[in-house]
């Protein structure tokens, strides 16, 4: 932006009508105080994590989580709480995976792996083959069928450590996990091992979804993630001796789709009941840990938004819904179903906020919206400053709310501190003890504050379109 | 600030000469990249925490830490590395403390306590007495000698949970720990139990320094901290029955002062070798944990600042020193000694930066400096934005650098995210596993960036005094 443009923009802000009232600072203070001294999110998360546990779509635990969260929402005195049916995929891990590196006949080193979500099993006795290490799909092409056929492809491109936003580092690697099997299959690979999406060197394998595209069921190759420590080990051993073999055994399988539910609660708007604002996270999780950060945190924070609005004496003008989406991890069926039903009913969703980046200290939000709405948000920044909320950028909102996108509405994602997130993501150490109560509560308060402001001032009010237009 | 003033200020910023160069963004990028991909701080901390451990002043471990950090600084190829002698107090904990609540004769509940640093022991058989709970010193006065004499005073004012900055919450409570014994002694109390300075409810007692002022040694009463869970328990039991007794036994004692050292390393300035800029943390820690956050993190980050400057190809104009202070926790002798020697030698310390708030994700700095220097810092904010460094406020710098304050110099404190800090502070869970490698490294990079900018542009350059004056 040129200096003149910047000046005009600043003048616009300074001499425009204030876009928030003195009283808003008091309301935010009340919200944060309630969240930090009387929050419910941590207790709810304790139950979800420690009494229920991992909540993979279609599992008994997922069903328990649906029932538990519905019961808890029922207690909040909302105007309406209901379950929205949705058919979800059911994938089961089977027995604990087993793997080792065989440097010579009878000389093996056990390594930590886990099947990727959606993968097929190995043969009952497991798969043992030579290994070819690559960093990307281009290397596969260079190597060609003659060097890959019958071997296990080992994808070992690490997350880029010098990226400050760890989600960006994740985005730069995750195609190995998601599409690795499809690409390796083209060259006749027998199986796939992927370096875990983890910036830290440790022993936890991290699962996550993968796809076979339109590969016939009989031709699908088993795929697993290996811990970062063991990826380093395997890579080093391969450098010393290309003839070493890798063995793994897993019994996972895809079953028939089963019935599950999105859990929804609503405070009906006092002035514009047909304008919907939603806040949500996903109720399902992977099965290795208890899904505390991904996305138990988002679930309980979203539930607490409605409680905090009520307890802060706020009567929303618009209808505010909490939506606990089912099956974000391996299908996004809940998010798609919610948008589909909303469209069928002609519900006008003006705003949707998702929390699905962990229960860490909130830094702000990223917004998928037009300039008018984004400028409106920027005008609220001073209100958030006392809470050290400083990150307001355009960008990705969230997977579950994505299908609700229109030209005029606002989609947003809570952006917590991301440094520790991938230490736990999809791994057995995504557990309750890794969540800090205050950090979780600050997230709930920050979400509530944004919902409060958008409800009060509306999305795209005229003032912003006219006065703060770029 | 009025709108007109704000406008003038903004105009000043917009049309002033740029206060940093394009090239600075590249230098910062290099610094952060090196810290995140090639940082040394985490390995150093691993050694300090896991090979040495808690480093209470005067202990063998403190001596080991002096030797280890000097050796490591020697390896960095600095211009000079040396030890600065300083006499430090030596307090020893003795055997593990024991405590219980006795609700009736023979019916006891064990609770978690630890002696406060500097406390005297109880009698060899321990101290058992009735308990009087208070929230502050005013309540002591109201109760008076008749209600306090011979009893144990139980200070139970919790940290205020709705304060966003947990250090502010700490500041609002810590007088109970530091001066609790002096105040309780005035009314003839037999001992003092203080609720741990911890926002979380858990079982860890948190130690920390306390003073007896000029109370004669023979009249000093034993003082201990109790875990927050057990403070809640004790308080509840007291509400049910005021006649319950509290027992504790501790064998701590203050020995004679012993010789120790500040560890100092220097890169001599190429243009202004007699202008000193220092960066530091404190090498001593409490004895319960291994002092990873308090302040192993600050130590290794400060060491890494000099390494990062060198490895980024920066030739400082001014002399940059890393100072690892001894005895911050219970005496501040190192900080005082360093300032005393600097004064004797007439060394002009233009800048001092301390990291002593944990190894968590850095958010920015607080500054103890004049307006000209502060405006200079504010002009650099855009350089820090890619690293999510947003907090630049006037305020406290750090205990160890405090004695260096002059009218014109800049003292600064790194401000990491504070939410988890007091979960670990001075407790047995201040351990290496609570430190995240990336968060630690981001702190080191952020400190290096500030040192780089102040070295390049100097403290209080004319441009800022003239053009961005308020």
UniProtKB/TrEMBL annotation, chains A, B:
Its main location: endoplasmic reticulum. The keyword Lipid metabolism does not apply. It is found in: Endoplasmic reticulum; Golgi apparatus; Lysosome; Secreted. One of its GO terms (biological process) is proteolysis. Residues 262-448 form the Peptidase M28 domain. It comes from the Bacteria. GO terms for molecular function: carboxypeptidase activity; metal ion binding; metallodipeptidase activity. Homodimer. The monomeric form is inactive while the homodimer is active. This is Carboxypeptidase Q. It comes from Flavivirga rizhaonensis.
């Amino acid at each position: 932006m040129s200096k003149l443009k910047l000046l005009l923009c600043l003048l616009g802000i300074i001499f425009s009508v204030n876009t928030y009232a003195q009283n808003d600072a008091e309301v935010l203070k009340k919200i944060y105080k309630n969240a930090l001294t009387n929050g419910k999110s941590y207790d709810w998360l304790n139950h979800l994590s420690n009494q229920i546990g991992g909540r993979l779509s279609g599992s008994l635990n997922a069903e328990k989580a649906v029932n538990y969260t519905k019961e808890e929402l029922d207690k909040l005195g909302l105007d309406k709480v209901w379950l929205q049916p949705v058919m979800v995929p059911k994938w089961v891990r089977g027995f604990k995976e087993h793997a080792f590196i065989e440097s010579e006949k009878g000389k093996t080193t056990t390594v930590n792996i886990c099947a990727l979500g959606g993968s097929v099993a190995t043969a009952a006795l497991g798969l043992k083959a030579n290994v070819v290490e690559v960093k990307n799909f281009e290397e596969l092409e260079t190597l060609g069928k003659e060097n890959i056929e019958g071997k296990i492809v080992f994808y070992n491109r690490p997350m880029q450590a010098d990226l400050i936003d760890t989600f960006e580092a994740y985005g730069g690697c995750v195609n190995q996990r998601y599409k690795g099997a499809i690409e390796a299959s083209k060259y006749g690979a027998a199986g796939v091992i992927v370096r875990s999406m983890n910036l830290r060197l440790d022993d936890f394998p991290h699962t996550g979804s993968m796809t076979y595209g339109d590969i016939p069921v009989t031709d699908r190759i088993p795929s697993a993630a290996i811990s970062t420590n063991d990826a380093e080990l395997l890579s080093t051993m391969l450098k010393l001796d290309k003839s070493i073999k890798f063995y793994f055994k897993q019994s996972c399988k895809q079953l028939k789709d089963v019935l599950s539910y999105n859990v929804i609660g609503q405070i009906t708007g006092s002035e514009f009941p047909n304008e919907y604002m939603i806040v949500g996270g996903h109720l399902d999780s992977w099965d290795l840990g208890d899904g505390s950060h991904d996305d138990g945190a988002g679930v309980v924070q979203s539930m607490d938004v409605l409680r905090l609005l009520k307890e802060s004496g706020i009567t929303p003008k618009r209808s505010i819904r909490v939506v606990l989406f089912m099956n974000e991890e391996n299908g996004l069926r809940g998010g798609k179903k919610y948008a589909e039903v909303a469209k069928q009913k002609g519900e006008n969703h003006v705003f949707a906020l998702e929390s699905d980046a962990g229960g860490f200290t909130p830094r702000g939000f990223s917004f998928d919206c037009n300039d008018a709405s984004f400028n409106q948000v920027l005008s609220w920044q001073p209100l958030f400053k006392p809470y050290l909320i400083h990150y307001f950028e355009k960008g990705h909102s969230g997977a579950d709310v994505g299908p609700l996108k229109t030209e005029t509405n606002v989609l947003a994602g809570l952006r917590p501190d991301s440094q520790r997130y991938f230490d736990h993501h999809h791994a057995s150490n995504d557990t309750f003890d890794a969540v800090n109560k205050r950090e979780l509560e600050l997230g709930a308060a920050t979400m509530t504050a944004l919902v409060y402001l958008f409800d009060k001032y509306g999305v795209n009010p005229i003032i912003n379109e006219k006065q703060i237009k770029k």
